[in-house]
Amino acid sequence: MAFIEKSPWIFHFDGSSCNGCDIEVLACLTPMYDVERFGVINTGNPKHSDIFLITGSINNQNKPVVEAIYNQMGDPKVVIAIGTCATSGHFFAECYNILGGVDTTIPVDVYIPGCAVRPEAIIDSVVQAMAILGEKRKKRKTNGGALPAEAGIKT
Amino acid sequence: MQNRTVIPFGPQHPVLPEPIHFDLVLEDETVVEAIPSIGFIHRGLELLCRKKPYQDMVYIAERICGICSFIHGLGYSQGVEKIMEIPIPERALYLRVFWSELSRIHSHLLWLGLTADAAGFESLFNHCWRVREYILDVIEETAGGRVIFGVCKVGGVRRDVDNDTLKRILARLEEIEADYNTIADVFKKDYTMRHRFSGVGVLSKEDAYKLGAVGPTARGSDVAQDLRKLGYAVYDELDFEPVTESDGDCYARCLVRIREVNESFQLIRQAVEKIPGGAVDLKVKGFPEGEFFSRLEQPRGEVVYYVKGNGTKFLDRFRVRTPTFANIPALVQMLGGCDLADVPVIILSIDPCISCMER
Questions:
Q1: Residue from the list B39, B64, B145 with its beta carbon closest to the beta carbon of A61
Q2: Which of A84, A141, B219, B231 could form a disulfide with A90 if both were Cys (CB 3.0 to 4.6 A apart)?
Q3: Any idea what the CATH number is for the domain that residue B79 is in?
Q4: Which residues in chain A have Cβ-Cβ distances shorter than 8 Å to B63?
Q5: CB of B323 within 8 A of CB of B67?
Q6: Residue A23 and residue B44: Cβ atoms within 8 Å?
Q7: What is the domain count for chain B?
Q8: Which residues are paired to A100 by β-bridges?
Q9: Residue A4's pLDDT is what?
Q10: Residues B141 and B169: beta-carbon distance below 8 Å
């Protein structure tokens, strides 16, 4: 695992999922899968985290919450949409209260479909997210370390 | 009167796995009043019954909640089956009990882990989830999925599990139960756990009854209410008693769940020993016409399904009343007068499942 340059801290929010994917995210942290050995820590504070794991689709009530969390996260950041609900809305897209997948509200970098997503898939998505995070960090360095606002990056 | 402060708690909070919001009115460090607001994950799933054929609704009913998914599918199927008066094969009913109890064990282990985590006992949290993985392996082997089973359908179950496999699983469950008992002993005997939860969030028997608490929340306050005693599926042929504790605090609710896991192991054993042979499903013809209230015991308490058919392939109405919703008034009562630092533990003690509640 020499390619890991950074211990990614993750932040998990339950959009409007059925809990299935949420408990699989938690299962990743427990002895069977144990991602903490790679330095992945589940933090409850968006300002501490690099990777935003979101399960479930977006509705009118949680839309401002998701936006607030996304804006509070430091740059660079990566968003992973976990489960079919987060990627497209699943059959809930037909429900009156669902706006659609997570990408209707915030930009998404990694999509993992599945109902419910298996922990292996979640771990794989975090590995992919780390590669994207590395690229974003490199890009930031070419800006001469300027703050996102100075460099004109919309957060 | 002292100055009052209002602290918003949630919807995103480190201790909450799911979004629920409370406005906590504080006097100094004591909570005077807790005002819940819900609806962050409302999807409007019930109305889908008018867009999807009634057989397909089982798929949707299972996704009301990913933790007690099987029991949601069972409740819905049972409602439709009662309306259509379908005689379900005995073997299917036994398999339904088998999966219901597996789902109860995995749900309780999940809750025990989260509770240990809320008490700051990280290693116990990991041990609970380690044992839970063994149960998930059994579920995966028999049903095919880890958290969403997808085996229940109108007219029976989708998969049969042959008797040899069941016997083998029973032997494995023995080992898992022995493993579980060592963890349960920590909850029962450890000073930290007893100290953290005893006397916290007390709900008296009268209040539990008056406020309509259900499941382990009610049973922790000595209300012996267990819907499995209604005898749905084949629970009337199995021998068990509702688990109750009398203290009504968070620790009592914890002990109820701990003992219920052992009871579930024992129910699985009975079911496997008694299981008859034969088919596991029936071909269902026709459409439901009429209405039925289906009541079941979820890991979190009583769940009520109202199913109304109109003789077409779409249902007229599908309504779910979930245990978390029934426990919210009791929770608000418990939160009054507690310390701010106890709030997460008390909220967790009713085993809130927000996605069930809001659907």
A1: B39
A2: A84
A3: 1.10.645.10
A4: 18, 20, 90-91, 115
A5: no
A6: no
A7: 1
A8: A58
A9: 64
A10: yes
| A116 vs B contacts (CB less than 8 Å) | 66, 145-148
Which residue range forms the structural domain that includes residue B130? Answer: 4-358
As given in the structure block, the two tokens for residue A81 are: 């949409």
Q: Give exposure, B81-106, as e/b (b: 16+ Cβ within 10 Å).
A: bbbbebebbbbbbbbbbbbbbbbbbb
Residue B29 reports pLDDT greater than 80 = yes
Contact B66 A18 (CB under 8 A): yes
Q: How far is A139 from chain B (nearest CA, A)?
A: 31
pLDDT of A41-66, one tens digit each? 888 788 888 889 898 888 888 888 88
Which fold would CATH assign to domain A9-142?
A: Rossmann fold (3.40.50)
A69 contacts B45? CB cut-off 8 A = no
| Helical packing angle, B250-274 and B90-118, nearest 10° | 150
| Euclidean distance between the first and the last CA atom of chain A, given in angstroms as a whole number | 30
Token pair recorded at residue B246: 């009398």
Where do the structural domains in chain A lie, given as residue ranges?
9-142
d(CA B85, CA B82): 5
Q: Is B281 helix (H, G, I), strand (E, B) or coil?
A: strand
Q: Which residue has the tokens 């406020």?
A: B211
Instruction: Tell me the pairing of strands A78-82 and A51-55.
Output: parallel
